[in-house]
Design brief:
The chain has 14 helices and twelve strands. By secondary structure, it is an alpha/beta fold. The protein has two domains: about 220 residues, Glycogen Phosphorylase B (Rossmann fold), CATH 3.40.50; about 140 residues, Rossmann fold (3-Layer(aba) Sandwich).
Length: about 400
């Protein structure tokens, strides 16, 4: 059984979740491979697609003079039409043909992850392949947008493009053998009401994590002030709650020590540690925090949830996506609704009432729900089921 995982880029949340699964399969002796388009980290165990093989010299010349001869150029032109606040828009067509790769030809199952801008959905070259598609956002199920927040606000800009993309995806779904996997009930429920997908091809499998790496230390409070960890990778993302950060800091910085890590760079005076490359350091930071704050107002199952709970650190956040699935009062607190007043209320609550959380029990929840072996076995069972069809 040869599996090929496919992800557009070798970084980011979707990649990290997919790569953890791939690593667990390799370490267990499974014949598993990984294919990416964009090379940010030059990982030796990943095959990188050579985009130059699909760009003949004539195309490069036309592109230089602004003639939209390639689908990538079409994507750039559409991006220019959209407001800067749109997180991502993908046109479903690309200039790449992964079916030409021997790696793809020899695969028994193609395991799609976040493949926007890489896999050409307006193609029948993969029609004989069995496909498992793990959903990391809504893009496979809707038009070019990746989240409903952007679609609701901006779809009127691109009516023609949206209609075309939806037709392309509908044809791809109908012409290929695809089983869909959702890590969260939020995405699972979108699949259930999608008429293009038969119900027996929808599966709910949460992400997994190496709980021996993300582990729980003895927590020693060295200050009376609560420490709240905020992992912020995009300070311009409305979807990730960027609009709330400055207000929270303004209202609580005299009572709370905020620990901010990630690639965001906020323009106000808040202590930021930047991107943490060392996993060991990140685990120490999780353990040093009293709470992890997730401000996403629309999301799937952020890796932060798994990492934080595996380290025994309770979570604060809004009632959205995977947070609803896994935060139940004994491992964190969810706001009543998505609003600043609501998140302000629960932070005020932890300051005034000092709720106690059993970090060992929080970690135990992670062990029972996110241990890598659980995800590995669930996918192994699914692969075997798909191959029998």
């Amino acid at each position: 059984m040869r599996i090929v995982h496919i992800n557009t880029v070798d970084s980011g949340g979707a990649f990290n979740a997919a790569y953890r699964l791939y690593q667990s399969q390799r370490s267990s002796g499974m014949d598993s491979y990984f294919l990416c388009l964009h090379n940010n980290n030059s990982r030796k165990d990943i095959t990188y697609y050579d985009a130059n093989i699909d760009y003949p010299f004539t195309r490069k010349i036309l592109w230089k003079f602004g003639i939209p001869y390639t689908k990538e150029h079409d994507q750039i032109l559409i991006n220019k039409k959209l407001p800067e606040e749109v997180e991502k828009y993908s046109i479903a067509e690309t200039d790449y043909d992964i079916s030409k790769l021997k790696l793809i030809q020899d695969a028994d199952i193609l395991h799609f992850h976040w493949v926007s801008g890489f896999v050409n959905l307006n193609s029948t070259t993969l029609i004989k392949k069995k496909i498992i598609w793990t959903l990391h956002d809504l893009n496979p199920l809707i038009g070019g947008f990746h989240y409903k927040l952007d679609e609701r606000k901006h779809k009127s800009f691109l009516t023609e493009s949206e209609n075309r993309i939806k037709v392309i995806k509908c044809n791809f779904f109908l012409n290929h053998q695809i089983s869909f996997v959702s890590p969260s009930k939020w995405l699972f429920n979108y699949c259930i009401v999608d008429d293009r997908i038969t119900k027996d091809r929808i599966h709910l499998i949460p992400y997994g994590i190496d709980t021996s790496v993300f582990t729980c230390f003895k927590h020693i409070a060295i200050s009376e002030r609560k420490k709240i960890l905020l992992i912020a990778d995009n300070n311009n993302s409305i979807r990730k709650g960027s609009e709330f950060v400055e207000r929270l800091f303004h209202d609580f910085s005299n009572k709370i020590d905020f620990i901010v890590v990630g690639s965001s760079n906020f323009c106000f005076d808040i202590k930021q540690y930047g991107f943490i490359e060392s996993i060991d350091t990140l685990v120490q930071i999780y353990n040093s925090a009293d709470f992890v704050l997730i401000l996403s107002i629309e999301d799937n199952l952020p890796n932060i949830i798994l990492e934080s709970l595996s380290c025994g650190t309770p979570i604060l956040g809004f009632p959205v996506g995977g947070l609803i699935d896994h935060i139940h009062g004994n491992n964190g607190i969810l706001a009543d609704e998505v609003s600043y007043n609501s998140i302000n209320k629960i932070i005020t609550h932890i300051i005034e009432n000092d709720p106690l959380f059993d970090r060992d029990k929080i970690r135990d929840y992670a062990l029972r729900n996110f241990d890598m072996r659980l995800q590995f076995q669930s996918y192994k069972n699914l692969y075997e089921q798909v191959l029998k069809e």
